[in-house]
Amino acid sequence: MASLKSFIKAVRKAKTIADERAVVRKESALIRTSFRDAGLDQTTRRINISKLLYLYIMGEKTHFGQVECLKLLASPRFLDKRLGYLAAMLLLDENQEVLTLLTNSLDNDMQHPNAYIVGLALSCLGNIASPELARDLYTNVETIMTSNNGYLKKKACIVAAKLVEKDPELSEFFLNKIPQLINDKSSSTLLGAVRLMESIYINNEDDRSQLIKYIPKIIGHLKRVTTSGYMPDYDVGGVTDPFLQVNLLSLLRILANGDGNQTYAEDINDILTQVASNLESGKNSANAVLYECVKTIFTIPSDQSLKILGVNLLGKFLSTKDNNTRYVALDTLLSVINIEPLAVQRHRSTIVNCLSDGDISIRRRALELSFAILNDQNIRVLVREILTFLETSGDNELKSYVTSQLTLAANKYSPNDKWHFDTLIRMLKVSGNFVTSDIISNILALILQCNDIELKRHIISSLLGACLEDSTQFGLSIITIWSIGEYADLILNQTVEIGEKKSKLITESVILQLIDELINNTTYSQAETTQLITYILTAVIKLSIKFKDSQSIESLRLILNARTYDNNLEIQIRALEYQEIFAQDTQLKKGLLARMPAPPLKERESLSLHATGSVKKSTSMGSATNGSGPAVPPSTDDLLLDLLDDNNSTSATNSTNQNELLSDIFGSNTKPARSNNDAILDLFNTPASNVTASTSTTSNSTTIPSIEAYANSHVRVLFTPKSFPQNGTAVIESIIESHESSAILEQVQLLIAVPKSQKLTITSTSGDTVSPGQSIKQTLKLVGKAGAKIKLRVKVRYGIAGSVVDEQFDFAGFEHTL
Amino acid sequence: MTIHFLLILNRQGKARLVKWFNNDYSNQERQRYLSEIHRLISSRDDSKYQSNFVEYEQQHKLVYRRYAGLYFVFGIDLNDNELNYLESLHFFVEILDEYFNNVCELDLVFNFYKLYNILDEIYLGGQIQEISKSRILERLAYLDKLA
To answer: What is the DSSP track for B7-34?
Structure first.
């Protein structure tokens, strides 16, 4: 059989992957065959196992060699043992049955007179200990810990730590070894002792109090190491024993944090000050110790002056050129900001500088930190920097995070309304393609709520100016076109600034030009274009009563006409409806197309309201959690499985499905972004559907009959099929009506589930309280496979006279299909 | 506070040393980690001024460094001291360099089993166990004599 070396050479010689596979397969087969030979000698076995390890590194299958390595390590020769244990550590792990076969060999070898063989056994146990092995072999480890051999003592400590991890009960046997170990001055033994204490502390709560008393010992060691002079053996970059220092500091942090009485607070403060001030930052090894020290300072209850020292150290880290140091500094500052906000503020300019760093991890952290330190004092300065970042950075994946955070911060801290809007517009200008729909709706709502006419004029003309300059920023285009539709009259015949110097008089033709440009823009995705066109159509119909020039009005009509043939159904419907309105007389149109009333305050806080709302709804469905939530309590199972019956798809019982279904049920609510988007669509839909209703009454065309789906002594639930275009979508209006005689119904909710193959979007209700004889309406939009039957499972819930009523029913009474 | 794995990969992504201290990964996961980590690190390595730390898969932070044509990679806990492990990585490389006398990739390829023996003298079960360079080298020399 060929040697290991020639095998490796053969693998390396292979020119193609196929060649390599062939070599590997052949060798692997040979090894398997030789393992089947009962009389295999240890030398051949050793060679084969070494080849097997090479295969292991290459990622090949090696399981067939597991028993063979046990045979090899049972050999009396050191050479065999060494490779046998090495292979055992790599090819076996704690989860395998064969491990039990290892117990005997480990037991024997840990008592071997040769310290190196004991070392091999210890290493092996430390790597692949299972709870069973831990319980079987802890006494051996205990014995070795008390030996005089430093080489074995340190290994035994670390193995003991591992065993405690596997079975916390074992800590009692090792706990009494600590007094002796902690007095050892050898760095490696101490390192092992520190590791053991840490493991006991973490894994066995009962023994914690017994460890805290060692704090003075640890402080003593730290003092000794920091004040000791040059020690060639343990010197790294001019720092004495940084590895030990780091571990001592980290243990100190764990213990001091658990010391409720803070018995040693003063001494700890002193030693931390000493470590922090004795070291010169610069070299990586020194920084590693300082970094650990700072982490400790901010985790335990430290002195104020010590905390300041800590933040200053981080400030020093930040100002270095080394990216690693800056990375940890930013990372730590992020966790410190809640403890010492003011001290962190002082490093603002350094943090801001990191926004333009070459390393994305650093930029990302600098951004997070910038938003974390943002407040009403520094918002102007910081936002300027953040906008510059948006403008110059190529990190597109960070931009939606930035725009969301920026909108949030501006809502919270803006010094005045004008600044607020100017900032938002600048943001749209530089990254209008990276705003989510909830930000768009948020900005639109802000514009609607603005009562200052002068400011509004300023906003609209800034938007228009920005959009004329660059029509490829989606968010900007959407918001501009909407605002123009609503408020064009405010800025007609005014001049707006475009870019730095140019200015332009806004006429009807300028607006038409912009509309034209946006319609013909090809930089947007399909979905974006659809959304933009629908916004444009709404703007066009609104402009039809604002424009004076008959030729411009004709142009508007032509835009609408052109869209009545659009391939996209949503656009086509809208265009047709608007065309209908366009033909009405001016008086009626003025009423229909009046400005939108300002919506109730829908700031981003309202987003979280949406979220909590959905949680409330989920709990009402039997305390199920929404989509991503953890366990679904069994009580909901029936209901859920019940719901799943409606489902045409197979495989209905696993919990993921239930979760998915749940998220389907709450589809529109569980995702705040979506629902807000819907809300803003609602802003548009409401007038539109009102319009349809009123046109139908004026033209006396067919009125659509509502279908009663459910009734009891309090409420009636009706569904009105609104539109069934037969292409897989349907719009239905649900009406909850209360009986004349009934009391006032409160917190009325309609929860609707559809088969999983369909998707349901529900707009928010017109209110949640129903007085006798009144009703509330909601619009449901269903999307699914064309031709599918519509089936709804509905749960209506309301409060009456202080008690809550739940009613559930199924409804499939529509004549139409999707 | 533990090292989950230590990898040595060459620039083409071939593994030269794989050591999983954490036994919780399945075989598929291990192979996926290897290729993903190589992709992640080599792309970072191409652009200048990157730190030697990068988060990976939510629960890991990679501390890595390229020495000639080889990437040395530690997978550590998110809240571990990155600088400390970077220093330790360098310590490991220095030992290799002295042991093999100007170590190169071929040394590691043909002596991979020795590489593991060295590793086992410096780290144990994901912990740093020995921090004196001279002691480790002495021990290694002695162990070679035993064999």
So the answer is: EEEETT--EEEEEES-TT--HHHHHHHH
Using the Cβ of A295 and the Cβ atoms of chain B, whether some distance falls under 8 Å is answered with yes
Size of interface A-B (CB pairs under 8 A): 151
Q: How many angstroms separate the CA atoms of A327 and A818, rounded?
A: 55
How buried is A13 (Cβ within 10 angstroms: 0-12 exposed, 13-18 middle, 19+ buried)? exposed
User: Which residues in chain A (116-145) have CB-CB distances under 8 A to chain B?
Assistant: 116, 122-123, 126-129
Structure tokens at B128: 């740093």
Residues A250 and B1: beta-carbon distance below 8 Å: yes
Rounded distance between C-alpha atoms, residue A640 and residue A662, angstroms? 8
* Mean pLDDT for the stretch of residues A521-547: 91
Do B127 and A242 lie within an 8 Å CB cutoff? no
Query: According to the model, what pLDDT value does residue B61 have?
Result: 92
Of A417-426, A472-481, A759-768, least confident by mean pLDDT is A759-768
Q: Which residue of A has its CA nearest to B87?
A: A285
Q: H helices of A146-258, where?
A: 150-166, 171-175, 178-182, 187-203, 208-212, 215-227, 242-258
Q: Mutate which of A190, A240, A243, A313 to disrupt the B interface (most B C-beta within 10 Å)?
A: A243
Dmax (CA) of chain A = 108
A459: its two tokens: 């906003």
Contact B49 A323 (CB under 8 A): yes
Chain B: closest CA distance from residue A350 (Å): 17
3-class DSSP assignment, residue A61: coil
Cross-strand pairs, A778:
A734
| φ, ψ (nearest 5 deg) of residue A599 | -75, 160
pLDDT tens for A231-268 read: 888 888 888 999 999 999 999 999 998 777 788 889 99
What is the spatial distance between Cα B62 and Cα A561, in angstroms, rounded to a whole number?
60
Res. A185 pLDDT band, cuts 50 70 90: confident
* Cα–Cα distance, A426 to B71 (Å, whole number): 43
For residues A288 and B63, the answer to whether their CB atoms sit within 8 Å is no
- Is the CATH code 3.40.30.10 the one for domain B3-146? no
Nearest-Cα distance to chain B for A814, in Å, is 48
Alpha helices in A414-549 (DSSP H): 417-431, 437-449, 453-469, 474-491, 508-519, 526-543
Q: What is the pLDDT of residues A744-789, one digit of tens each?
A: 777 787 778 877 777 777 776 667 777 777 777 787 777 777 777 7
Query: In the predicted model, is pLDDT for residue A604 greater than 80?
Result: no
> Is the per-residue pLDDT at A667 higher than 60?
no
Band (pLDDT 50/70/90 cuts) for residue A641 is very low
Q: What is the spatial distance between Cα A255 and Cα A213, in angstroms, rounded to a whole number?
A: 9
Please determine, for residue A797, whether its predicted confidence score (pLDDT) is greater than 90: no
HEC profile for A547-567? CCCHHHHHHHHHHHHHHCCCC
Contact A243 B117 (CB under 8 A): no
CB B86 within 8 A of CB B75: no
Residue A457: strand, helix, or coil: helix
The three-state secondary structure class of A467 is helix
Phi, psi of A444 (to 5 degrees): -60, -40
Beta strands A759-762; A707-711: pairing state: unpaired
Whether the full predicted model's pTM is greater than 0.90, yes or no, is no
Cα distances from B5 to residues A205, A419, A678, B71, in angstroms, run 28, 51, 47, 13
**Contacting residues of B for A287, CB less than 8 Å apart:** 83
Residue ranges of the domains in chain B? 3-146
Q: Which residue of B has its CA nearest to A322?
A: B51
| Chain B residue whose CA is closest to A50 | B113
- Token pair for residue A708? 């009663």
Q: Closest partner residue to A86 among B1, B116, B142, by Cβ?
A: B116
User: How far apart are alpha carbons B133 and A622 in whole angstroms?
Assistant: 63
